Amino acid sequence: MRIWLVIFSLFLVACGSNPASVSGPTPAGFYRVKSGDTLYRIAKNNDQSVAELQRWNRLSKNDDILAGQLLRLTPPAGSVSAPSKPRPTQARPRLPEVKPPSNVGIEMVWPSQGPLLYAYAPPRVKGIGIGGALGAPIVAVADGKVLYSGDGIRGYGLLLIIQHAKGYLTAYAHNQKLLVKEGAQVKQGQAIAAMGKTGTDRVKLHFEVRYQGKTINPVSALPSR
To answer: Where are the alpha helices (DSSP H) in 57-142?
Structure first.
């Protein structure tokens, strides 16, 4: 299956219910799906990849998740080698930042010329904030294809997600208006949205970059300014 179908499945919105699993406490190492959750958001909030959650929960790439469903957040017993010594703490170590290779064959431009409002600070802040005036143009940072255009992912307001070459994805959140639709091909520098504050408390662009499914510091992929 082509990679864009795999990536797009990350943003499927959960719906419906699972009566067999709605009641009862949530065991340690599991998460109970709430209405409106997506596999992408659950993985992001728990510092896991969508591929890992799919493997640990035996989900196919096209499976929806259901409200009330229990999802395993850690590997099942026997799927990883047992440590030789007991762990001193149950806390999962922070995953190292994934950095793109120095020669990736893709050049990006800034999506907006406004001031930097906040920096990339994972795991809580997985992108950067760029300020500007309401309605200011947001442009595509590189050529690509629009994988998502809408407001179905909680916390992002009106959101665009674009797939680029070499395993890159970019996300543009809190827009006032979206100018391109899913499936559209866009060119670097093309206006794709108008800056807004949907899903947040001030006018800004929240901008994220993912490389091979992992979040990276957007500043490392953008030119100096």
So the answer is: none
**Whole-number pLDDT of residue 51:** 84
Nearest-angstrom CA–CA distance, 171 and 192: 11
Q: What is the pTM of this model?
A: 0.59
Question: What is each CA distance from 190 to 26, 60, 144, in whole angstroms?
Answer: 46, 35, 11
The residues with which 216 forms a beta bridge, in sequence order, are 209
Q: Are 159 and 200 in contact (CB under 8 A)?
A: no
Residue of 129 and 56 predicted with greater confidence: 129
pLDDT surpasses 80 at 97 = no
Distance of CA 176 to the CA centre of its chain: 20
Rounded to whole angstroms, the Cα distance separating 76 from 74 reads: 6
Contacts of 98 (CB under 8 A, 6+ apart): 211, 212, 214, 215, 216
CA distance 195 to 24: 43
